[in-house]
Amino acid sequence: MKYTSQAVAKPYFIAAIGLFLAQVIFGIILGIQYVIGDSLFPEIPFNVARMVHTNTLIVWLLMGFMGAAYYLIPEESERELYAPWLAHLTFWVFLIAAALTVIGYLAVPYARLAEMTGNDILPTMGREFLEQPTITKVGIVIVALAFLFNIGMTVLKGRKTVVSLIMLIGLLGLALLFLFAFYNPTNLVLDKFYWWWVVHLWVEGVWELIMASMLAFVLIKTTGVDREVVEKWLYIIVALALITGIIGTGHHYYWIGTPEYWQWWGSIFSALEPLPFFMMTVFAFNMVNQRRRNHPNKAAVLWALGTAVLAFLGAGVWGFLHTLAPVNFYTHGSQITAAHGHLAFYGAYVLINITMISYAMPLLNGREANSMRSQVLEMWSFWLMSVSMVFITLFLTAAGILQIFLQRYTETPLPFMVVQEKVALFYWLRVISGLVFLGGLGTYIASFFVAARDAKHPQALDAGPMPSSPAGV
């Protein structure tokens, strides 16, 4: 690493991977509860497991974004971080708040938790993905303000680049849109209308800017391609992402009581949303093919290429499958939605965080790349997690198609629970795939310990041939 203050990113990355592990474990618990409804009841009810699964996903991704910013911004700005002590402080505040919130979910009934944490004073709880207690939401805002101040001052006092400015804009948008989590109108249509301003405009708006800046940074460092070339691609990708993503929010407004024109606006612009993801895929492979150097961290390049491909498949292809209003009439809220969500989150945001961690952690530990033995494990973990996630998506898609046919697209619809029993085989297959995914994550975590051991014993670095990967990485 070039600047000592970049070291503050390390605890963020470690905590992010720990929370990722917790998220996957609770995902497997949820998968089992789909077919064995009273599994772990009453210790871990289904609604609690679901809250922990989705909330740890959000927190660990945010933790990864913050670590990436603390590593990326000083290098792009060519100066030390404005206030390293503040970065350390916000890390512990964020981590402790997240831990206490999860403990609250597991130890106290949700209604009681709402009473204990001031929800009567400022009602914000009870909505999907925004279940966090009001006091936790206030803490998130405080952490976000301190984080943005630290990053903003570093950018203002240093060199300005397209990469750092796009990341800063994305982080600012993330913080501003979260404020709608505090707006909880009694009218259900208004509630859902503005709820999507957090949920959709995060993942299909400002998060895409953060993702693009992180991917560009890693590709610049690992390929040696001219920054001007990367910046031209970034301008187009970001413009398309914002234009299609912002107006594409309308694909959530089809059936919630909003005017009918949203069916046209939502269908047209969300049908265009795969374009920026397709361009990101072309961009990533083009940069690797034009590379001027063979970076020793081949695992990081593989993660980067995987990000582009699986983000396009998950967010683009699977998103398009059910985004048109006439199709969404039958598919909304089905397992098709779950299939899209799993592959889109994994491809776009899980993989970009791992890409950044894979590139930065060796440098934070004083080496340009991990040992070949460690990178072999990383590549195995990539294929194990990615292939198992593709199978999870396919099984959920199959379950969704059957669910739609038996429950919605028929003159004799079956009751919901009867349909759930008929698709149980796909749920079991999803659990098996989830266990393989957990094994892949365990392999990834193991690669760090192998890298540390090999760094102490350089004579043990010969690991044999590496597994094949795209584009001759």
From TrEMBL:
Membrane topology: Multi-pass membrane protein
One Pfam family hit: COX1
Gene Ontology MF annotations: cytochrome-c oxidase activity; heme binding; metal ion binding; nitric oxide reductase activity
PROSITE patterns: COX1, COX1_CUB
Pathway(s) annotated for this protein in UniProt: Nitrogen metabolism; nitrate reduction (denitrification); dinitrogen from nitrate: step 3/4
Entry-linked Gene3D superfamilies: Cytochrome c oxidase-like, subunit I domain
Keyword Transmembrane assigned: yes
UniProt catalytic activity: nitrous oxide + 2 Fe(III)-[cytochrome c] + H2O = 2 nitric oxide + 2 Fe(II)-[cytochrome c] + 2 H(+)
Keywords: Cell membrane, Electron transport, Heme, Iron, Membrane, Metal-binding, Oxidoreductase, Respiratory chain, Transmembrane, Transmembrane helix, Transport
GO biological process annotation, one example: electron transport coupled proton transport
Keyword Cell division tagged: no
Superkingdom field: Bacteria
Enzyme Commission no: 1.7.2.5
Localization: Cell membrane
Segments passing through the bilayer: 12-36, 56-73, 85-108, 135-156, 163-183, 195-220, 232-256, 262-288, 300-321, 341-361, 382-406, 426-451
One CC-aspect GO term: plasma membrane
InterPro entries per record: Cyt_c_oxase-like_su1_dom, Cyt_c_oxase-like_su1_sf, Cyt_C_Oxase_1, Cyt_c_Oxase_su1_BS
Residue span(s) of domain Cytochrome oxidase subunit I profile: 1-473
PANTHER family the record matches: CYTOCHROME C OXIDASE SUBUNIT 1, NITRIC OXIDE REDUCTASE SUBUNIT B
Family: Belongs to the heme-copper respiratory oxidase family.
Quaternary structure and partners: Heterodimer of cytochromes b (large subunit) and c (small subunit).
Biological function: Component of the anaerobic respiratory chain that transforms nitrate to dinitrogen (denitrification). NorB is the catalytic subunit of the enzyme complex. Shows proton pump activity across the membrane in denitrifying bacterial cells. The mononitrogen reduction is probably coupled to electron transport phosphorylation.
Name of the protein described by the UniProt record: Nitric oxide reductase subunit B
Native organism: Thiocapsa rosea
